[in-house]
Design a protein that fits this description.
Length: 259
């Protein structure tokens, strides 16, 4: 039994506003991503910005997560906890993941940032991760199987010599932080539930340079790292199934068509 919420037009408008605020917050955060800055400092700026826009940062207090955002550097796959001890350095690649609650509605988006001179292999990983998200988004239309999202992502990542994390997934979003369905990034063709207009979910593939497996930091219980400490990269958008295709609700730069 699947229980994927079909959102009402009013809910869609609310989730769009929240997703756009999350994307604006990401852009705002970008100006602080510099050598010598701590991830704690960036997180404080993010929290201030979200509160100033009459919203709340969804991660704070979520299952005990202590900060307003996730900031994941280099070999950290996801759920990096901002800290005074983590100082950004030249050559780093990092993901900032923002989820806002605006008027009760959740929007969730993340992307990569680079610091100074980044090596060619890391840049290629980032480019492929971005393309994986784009390929996944193109699979969003009524009547398609959720499994086809992960199918195209995994096939492309593999063809470029990378692996796809299977232990963390995209998810329904909007009325709650994490709703059904789980959106796998490594699924088989024509598997899983069928997409219907009004469904809203994230696609957020995490792509690794080395092995796909992750391990969670024993000390903080959150930080997920690649098992071989090689690099990982991720982009995430919140996406609506329209009557004929998709709308990327967190796309404030009109990088995607509405189909
Ligand atoms: N924003 C993350 C996601 O894309 C979830 C973070 S959970 C937290 O689903 F507790 F770490 F914030
Ligand atoms: Co997120
Ligand atoms: Co998400």
């Amino acid at each position: 039994m699947s229980n994927i919420i079909i959102k009402t037009p009013e809910q869609i408008d609310g989730i769009r506003e929240s997703s756009r605020l999350a994307a604006k917050t990401l852009d705002f955060a970008g100006q602080f991503v510099k050598e010598g800055v701590t991830t704690e400092f960036i997180d404080r700026k993010i929290e201030e910005f979200i509160l100033d826009h009459n919203a709340l940062p969804a991660p704070k207090g979520y299952n005990g997560f202590p900060k307003a955002s996730c900031i994941s550097l280099n070999e950290v796959v996801c759920h990096g906890i901002p800290s005074d001890d983590i100082v950004i350095k030249d050559g780093d690649i990092l993901n900032i993941d923002i989820t806002t609650i605006l008027n009760g509605y959740y929007g969730d988006t993340s992307r990569m940032f680079t610091v100074g001179v980044v090596d060619a292999a890391a840049n290629k990983l980032i480019e492929v991760s971005r393309h994986c998200l784009d390929l996944g988004i193109k699979q969003v239309y009524p009547g398609n199987y959720f499994g086809n999202i992960g199918f195209v992502i995994n096939r492309y990542a593999k063809s470029r010599g990378f692996t796809v994390v299977y232990e963390f997934c995209g998810h329904g979003v909007g009325l709650q932080f994490h709703e059904e369905p789980q959106v796998d990034h490594t699924s088989r063709r024509n598997r899983g539930s069928i997409m219907k207009p009004g469904m809203i979910f994230t696609i957020e593939p995490m792509i690794n340079q080395g092995r796909p497996a992750t391990r969670i930091d024993k000390t903080d219980g959150w930080t997920a790292r690649t098992i071989d400490n090689k690099l990982s990269a991720q982009f995430e958008h919140t996406i609506l199934v329209t009557s004929s295709g998709y709308e990327v609700l967190s796309d404030i730069h009109n990088e995607y068509e509405i189909t």
